[in-house]
Amino acid sequence: MANSANRARSYDPAKVRAALAGQTEALRGVVHELCARPDAASLLERPTRLGDWNLRQLIAHLGFCLDWLPRHLEQPVPDGAPLSLVQWVGVTRTAAAAIDAAVQEHAEGAFAGSPAEVAEEFDRACDLLLATLERPEVVDPARRFVIRFGPILLTDFLVTRLVETVVHADDLAAALDLADFPHDRQALAAVTRLLADAFADQVPGGAVELRVPPYAVVQAVPGPRHTRGTPPNVVETDPLTWIRLATGRTSWADVVDTAVHASGERSELGEYLPIMG
Questions:
Q1: Checking DSSP bridges between strand 260-263 and strand 233-237, what pairing results, if any?
Q2: DSSP secondary structure string, 134-193?
Q3: Per-residue pLDDT tens for 64-119?
Q4: pTM of this prediction?
C-alpha cells in the first residue's frame, strides 16, 4: 500500500473501534493471567524496558491510556485546527515528564493494591472504554476531543489509543518473556501504517522505499531524489520490528543484519530513528 507523506491516510472508524476493543481484550487477558500467578506480587515489581518503570507502573499506564477517553469525553474542546495523526506522533516525546508523573500517581493510587486488585482496576478501565466506544458521539466523524497537545478529531484519537495499546502490549510481552502477544491484527496494521507515514513526514526525500509487509509501503527517507532508471534503495522489515525501531525499543544496529533487509547505498536509517518518544 503506497502512501505519500503529503496525503493523509484515512482509517475506517468502525474498524478502528473494533480493533481497539480487540486489543483491549487481549491486554485484559494477559494482565489477568499475570495477576493470577502465584508469584504475581513479585512479578509486578519486575523491571521493564521503559526506564525505571516496573510491570505495575506499565499496567497502570495502560489503564490510564484506556480510560482517558471515558474520563475526558465531555471536556470542552478549544478552538483551532485539529492535530493530525502524524503531528501527534511528532509531539508525543514532549510529554514524557508529564506522562511519567501520571504513571507514578496511578501506580501509587488506583493500581497500588494486591495483584487481584490490580486486575480489578484494569478491568474497570477496560470496561469503561468498551462502554464508551458504543456511545453515539464516539461514532460522529465531526466530533472533536481535547488532549494535552490540543484538539484532535475523536476518530483520530482512537487511532492514538491503538498506538498506545499495541506498543505497550509489546513492552508487557517483553517484560514477561512472552514469545507472542495476541495482538489484534487490525490494530497492528493501523499502528504500522501510522508510524510509517510519520517517518515519511519527518524525513522526506523519496530516496528509499520502506516496506513493512503486509501493511505498509512508503516512499520516504533522506538522500538524493530518486531519478528515473536508478535502482531504488529498499528497507524491508516485519511490523513488530518496525514498531520497535520507530519507538526506540530497539536500535538499527541491533536488527539490521537479522530482522531488517536493506539494499542500496542510501538505506541506512539508524540516525533518523526513533520517530516517536
A1: antiparallel
A2: TSHHHH-TT-EEEETTEEEEHHHHHHHHHHHHHHHHHHHHHHHT-S-----HHHHHHHHH
A3: 999 999 999 999 998 899 999 999 999 998 888 889 999 999 999 999 999 999 99
A4: 0.92
